[in-house]
Design goal:
Rossmann fold; alpha/beta; 2 domains; 229 residues; 9 helices; 7 strands
């Protein structure tokens, strides 16, 4: 059994990994542990996006505790601090190329042979737009929302992952603008909708996410990351 430690940005990603990714990867011989980013050492608070130095120190500490284990991340591109490796210098790049370059520089910064950096495009909620009809079905149960509202958003982009990253247009902000901030739970609604959608559909609609998941699956087959061979 191959072990993988995943550093997740927040509660939503943590629950997604625990309830959806962990059972899936177990079938490939990969056992996943997940913990949120340490944001306040004194208060032992985890969850959120602090400065890169804090992110780096937290990952490095976990690597020090488990040097024989593979390590990876699930961190949103939306909300990264300016000091994150490559964040400022890649702002002119297309979204997928930008994420790949940030991951490359992130990996160089961590500098550990069993570290697989992953940056979520553009945030966790982009995965929900893999099936906007399921979103409407679920979020329309208790909210009066326009028919086809999530489909209209999704159809404006090449992929769910391309839905952009400003304070008004990030995937979560678009959801909240339709149903209201108090009527959408990032943790509860998010994971329930993703369970309804299923990993097969998510992977088809989110190629960057799919590439990451393939790398994790392959660890169980070979014990190595094929991209590093």
């Amino acid at each position: 059994m191959i072990r993988v430690n995943i550093t997740a940005e927040g509660f939503s990603e943590e629950r997604f990994i625990e309830e959806i990714l962990r059972p899936h990867l177990l079938a490939f011989g990969v056992y996943v542990e997940v913990r949120k980013i340490l944001t306040n050492r004194k208060l032992k608070k985890r969850g959120g996006m602090p400065s890169y130095e804090k992110v780096k120190n937290d990952i490095k500490q976990w690597i020090k505790e488990s040097p024989g284990v593979w390590h990876t991340t699930m961190i949103d591109l939306y909300g990264l601090k300016n000091d994150f490796p490559g964040y400022s210098t890649t702002s002119h790049m297309r979204y997928d190329s930008r994420a790949a370059e940030i991951e490359r520089q992130f990996g160089e910064s961590i500098d550990f042979h069993k570290f697989i950096p992953y940056i979520q495009l553009h945030e966790y909620e982009a995965l929900l737009f893999s099936d906007p009809d399921k979103m409407e079905e679920w979020l329309g149960l208790y909210n009066d929302i326009p028919k086809g509202c999530f489909r209209d958003i999704r159809d404006g982009f090449e992929s769910a992952e391309q839905i952009n990253d400003s304070k008004q247009t990030a995937p979560s902000k678009r959801i909240e603008s339709i149903v209201g901030k108090d009527n959408y739970s990032k943790v509860d609604d998010g994971v329930l909708i993703l369970k309804e959608i299923g990993l097969e559909k998510i992977r088809k609609e989110c190629p960057h996410f799919d590439d990451w998941l393939i790398r994790l699956e392959n660890l169980g087959t070979t014990g190595n990351d094929p991209e590093e061979e």
